[in-house]
Prior knowledge:
Elements: E1 7-12, H1 18-31, E2 39-41, H2 48-63, E3 68-73, H3 79-91, E4 96-100, H4 118-128, E5 132-137, H5 148-160, E6 163-168, H6 174-186, E7 193-194, E8 196-197, H7 203-212, H8 219-224, H9 232-252, E9 257-261, H10 266-275
Parallel strand pairs: 1-2, 1-9, 2-3, 3-4, 4-5, 5-6, 6-7, 8-9
Helix pairs in contact: 1-10, 3-4, 9-10
The structure holds flavin-adenine dinucleotide (FAD).
Amino acid sequence: MISKKINVSFEFFPPKNEESITSLWTNIKRLEPLEPKFISVTYGAGGSTRDYTHTLVKEIKKNTSLVPAAHLTCIGTSKNEIEAIAEDYWISGIKHIVALRGDKRDEGEKEFSDFTYATDLIKVLKKKFDFEITVSAYPEMHPDSSSMSQEYDVLKKKIDLGASKAITQFFFDVNCYFDFIDGALKRGINIPIIPGILPVTNCKRTLDFASKMNCKMPKSLIDMFDGLDSDPETRKLVATTIVYDQCRKLIEGNVRDFHFYTLNRADLSFAICHILGIRTLGKN
Ligand code: FAD
């Protein structure tokens, strides 16, 4: 067990059907006794799951002891719509927003938007209410960025506008994270930049997403899943080992805060937290 004080947060996404909603609540309840700093709910690329983000965030606030953070994206959205969402959150007591641009539609497809970047969203949110603002950070560079210095400039801009924390895109090579933090400190960026940890259980799907998002997946990691396509149980054990190793190296480098991309499954995050010394002490 690692004895140093570790803080965690967990990310969930709004499910698409009733059955998954029931299972989501079981998973949220399983992680609640670990007393995460916050739990965040993502905001989908349009349609009914967006409305469910608002509902879920408010239900978490009302029915649990957890502190919810609402993800909000701005691309393809009007200023009026964002202001209405912000007002609804604020009066419902939701004061922490993960402010993001969101993904653009395919090349050539035109869409209306009052916003171009996450910075535009932060401006509008902060003008209306004094939200706690968390933003994204990309240790391996966002695919739309042309250089790491652009990455840092944008992060700096977000901080100047009021962001107080960042969560990184998932990564597998801890050195990328440490290099990113070194670069940030050299540029006077000293807000917490929390590593986003993704327990990989579906290697093929992760590879696909990682290549779109510029995240390197080491061959040694891919090899660990070789031959396990039809063996989900062993994949979970492998995933726990990989994430534990990643967290251990980060802790050795003095990281104390971790954000887990749970993919709506509590089991892996729960097991890893237990190994890291975050115990429920009989609370569940
Ligand atoms: P931005 O920070 O706006 O950056 C996008 C690009 O524009 C970058 O290349 C940046 O360098 C450039 N840029 C930014 N600001 C400026 C500026 N002022 N001037 C010039 N260039 C600029 N997506 C969802 O749809 N829903 C979610 O809930 C969600 N949650 C996420 C949570 C985390 C922790 C992370 C890391 C990502 C999440 N995403 C989510 C994905 C995110 O929406 C995409 O990665 C998207 O492509 C970029 O969003 P952003 O807020 O990082 O963009």
